Amino acid sequence: MEINKTHFLLDRAHLEEAVLKQASIFEYYASEAARQESKVARLKNELKYKSAQRKIEIRANAAATKAKLLLDEVECMIATDPELHGLELQILDAEEYLGQLKSAVEAMRHKRDSIENERALVLSKFTLINGDCSPDTKLEMQTNAVEEAINKSMNK
Q1: Which of 30, 49, 47 is nearest to 103 (CA)?
Q2: Global pTM?
Q3: Pick from 102, 45, 49, 38: which is nearest to 78 by CA?
Q4: Confidence class of residue 144 from pLDDT cuts 50, 70 and 90?
Q5: Distance, C-alpha 6 to centroid of its chain
């Protein structure tokens, strides 16, 4: 799955559509992040298991030939094992993708907040146009609402 950067854009002219899509896109990235986290854990477990198997193999081969191996020699053999190195690279790739997915989830949270802020501004303008309160009072309320939203988003 590739992260689609257009998912994070907010089209202010189509807020209703953004509201409808945001939750499903958020769920999509959150689910994928959970699956990727599980994949990273499985890969790390596989690396640990195969490393242990390889150490047993190295020691058994050394015992069969009556060779003495130092701990550093065993660790070097483990570090240079192509299969284990391949697993380590898979883990790094999986962790990188997991980081991207977590960023996507956070970006969708910000988009949700932006949608809510835009909705509030649209309602404020509608109320102002319909003459439900004076422009001075409305401006003060809008200013306070925007400041509150900014403070709230910065504290997350």
Answers
A1: 30
A2: 0.67
A3: 49
A4: confident
A5: 16
The DSSP H or E segment spanning 56 is: helix 15-64
Under a CB-based contact definition with an 8 Å cutoff, are residues 46 and 87 in contact? yes
Mean pLDDT of the chain: 84
Measure the CA dihedral 81/83/84/85, to 10°.
80
CA distance 73 to 55: 11
Give the separation between CA 19 and CA 26, rounded to whole angstroms. Answer: 11
Cβ partners under 8 Å of residue 124, min gap 6 = 138, 141, 142, 145
pLDDT band at 128 (very low <50, low <70, confident <90, very high): low
